[in-house]
Write a structure and sequence with these properties.
Oligomer: single chain
Shape: elongated
Order of helices and strands: HEEEEEHEHEEEEEEH
Radius of gyration: 24 Å
Strand content: 25-35%
Number of strands: 12
Strand order of the largest sheet: 1-4-6-7-8-9
Distance between the termini: 66 Å
Length: 218
């Protein structure tokens, strides 16, 4: 279950942004990538974050060439703004070498989510870059990005657990595609019920008018 939960977090964190997030505002584009190689300008460090978000850049028109399936800093012109690592064991170095490497790259926010407590308690830790290093913050709102992070407990795809979710500044969650579909279906059903109720009321009124000798269609 833990492995499946990790895969779902990675997949849905990316797709939720494209489904429910309008971006950082003013029509600015962004890319969100999962499990891709992240290469620095000097090619001295190659990392594979679980998720990265980069503002003010556009995804390649053709995603299939190998060169377009990685994040080359020199091609995009900037490092990612947010990097998320989801811990699956105690050997990944998420709070060691990786933290230092992402800071050197110029990543603005580094997020470490450790749902099973392999290396961290609390499970969610957020670091913000100051000068050339990271400083841990308790603020779950990523200033300048227009995104926040929250831990949500519930059932998703028949798996019960605590999930890492994107949220708005007021704490409301960005909806996954599945949740958006459910809400649309509920609204359609509510509208159908409302229409049925109005039709029933109209029929009862028409029946009363006929009983009084009044033609409701006149």
């Amino acid at each position: 279950i833990a492995r499946r939960q990790r895969q779902m977090c990675i997949r849905d964190s990316r797709t939720t942004l494209y489904d429910s997030w309008p971006g950082p505002g003013d029509g600015r584009p962004f890319v969100a990538m999962a499990n891709v190689g992240l290469f620095t300008m000097a090619e001295q460090t190659v990392l594979v974050p679980d998720l990265l978000v980069s503002l003010d850049v556009r995804a390649p028109d053709d995603p299939f060439p190998k060169i377009n399936r990685s994040y080359f800093v020199w091609n995009y012109g900037k490092p990612p703004d947010v990097v998320v690592e989801i811990v699956s064991n105690a050997k990944g170095g998420e709070l060691g070498n990786k933290l230092l490497d992402y800071a050197r790259m110029g990543v603005a926010y580094y997020v470490v989510y450790d749902p099973e407590g392999h290396i961290s308690d609390p499970p969610l830790r957020i670091f913000t870059r100051q000068a050339t290093s990271f400083v841990e913050t308790t603020d779950h709102w990523l200033h300048g990005i227009g995104l926040g992070l929250a831990l949500w407990e519930g059932v998703y795809e028949d798996v019960s657990g605590v999930w890492l979710r994107w949220c708005n500044q007021d704490g409301s969650l960005l909806l996954t595609g599945q949740e958006s579909t459910v809400i649309v279906r509920e609204r359609v059903e509510q509208e159908r019920q409302r229409a049925d109720l109005e039709r029933e009321r109209a029929e009862k009124l028409a029946a009363k008018l006929r009983a009084l000798g009044i033609d409701p269609d006149a």
